[in-house]
Amino acid sequence: MGRYVIALDQGTTSSRAVLFDRAGRPVASVQRPFPQIYPQPGWVEHDPHDILSSQLGALTELLVSEGLAPDDVDSIGITNQRETTIVWNRLTGEPVCNAIVWQCRRTTEMIERLCADPEVARRITATTGLIPDPYFSASKIKWILDNVAGAREAAERGELAFGTVDSWLIWTLTYGRVHATDVTNASRTMLYDIHNGCWDEYLLDLFGIPASMMPEVRPSASSFGETSNPGLVQGIPICGVAGDQQAALFGQCCFKAGMAKNTYGTGCFLLMHTGHEACESSHGLVTTIAASAPGVEGAEYALEGSVFMAGALVQWLRDELGLIESPAQTESLAKSVPDTGGVYIVPAFTGLGAPYWDAEARGAIFGLTRGAGRAHIVRAALEALAYQVLDLVVAMEEDSGITLSTLNVDGGASANDFLLQFQADIMDRILKRPRNTETTALGAAYLAGLQTGFWRDLEEIRRLGDIGDVFSTKMASKRRHELIDGWHEAVGRTRTRRP
Prior knowledge:
- The structure is a single chain.
- The protein is of the alpha/beta class.
- The chain has 16 helices and 22 strands.
- Helix 9 packs across helix 14 (439-452).
- The protein is globular.
């Protein structure tokens, strides 16, 4: 058994390789960015070779820089940007076109056309747990088959393979020996029956996708082959795979129903573990499969909600308004005033997401007076992040019937103490921030290490959990309700469809 586990963290703008020791500490990390491609407005692509070269380059550099022999590495875990779609030729290993990224909106009209029949939309949600949207992989595969010359014919002959980014990496790392994905990534394709654990024939037919294209679906902690690519160190087992948000949920040790994590990134991703129950949402949340440890019988599920504008709102303060020079300034500015002076920012720049789902809503600043200044607006922006997360938590509690007592947090903006204290205040919940914020990569490493026995069981991993800071409410109940009422009034004034 080796001394380390390596996590490959393949993200939207960069690829990383992170080395973890037996204590779950990140010992070393290598990161390589790669280009973003925008062929048309609303279109986002990646060259699959760029994804591959950045990820394999990061892995190779990590192994070389740390002087690691194959015997030093117990296993590899993979976590990845979800929904991004790659189709390649099984015989040559060559992609038939660029990857269509999760952010890409080119298939909006296709989804609207297919789901004009409410029964079709209802069946998609009932089967997959997802709201029909171009965000997911299904319509992206159809677009490739319909628009790339010869693709559909090759697919019908069984020559093409589809994969999310994890599958593409597994295929290449194993030199074409393994075409597989895990349950978490499969559950983001809008083609997977999350209740029966299989690719759904009705949905494959609806989108015109041959079943022969689809990867084998395996548990998140299981064998995905071993490194066999001639350009790599040979024989390292690949034993854990999970989409980035589910990997973060696992890395935060949210193993039981009612445990939740929120990642403060460009947007926010809030996931609550719901155990073996796939909770249906009436608030525009999605039901997804959670990553499980080896030996768990039956699928485990999570409710997921997304906030469109989190870190992106702070970037707006810097780049468009010029109110700050760096995100780090927001904490001291927010603390320099006792409150926002009645100012609320509703960051509906691209519409409102869950639980409102109003695509035509637009952002606004309310409550401006002559006394409102730079610090008030910056503080209102940070508070807006917390209000949006609060709305998701309330929706999740109503959907699941589970009361959340503690929220685990990670992501770039979780370094902001003001934000986390206000989040705890406005939610009246405890927030926990780990010292090790590499929770996404750590989740992938945990899955791999549990499969091989590098870590014995979930209890051992729980003991490794390193809670850095705990935030609890300091706000009076009356004040909390006044602020929340003000937020909801502001949101209501931005909506095009009033409740």
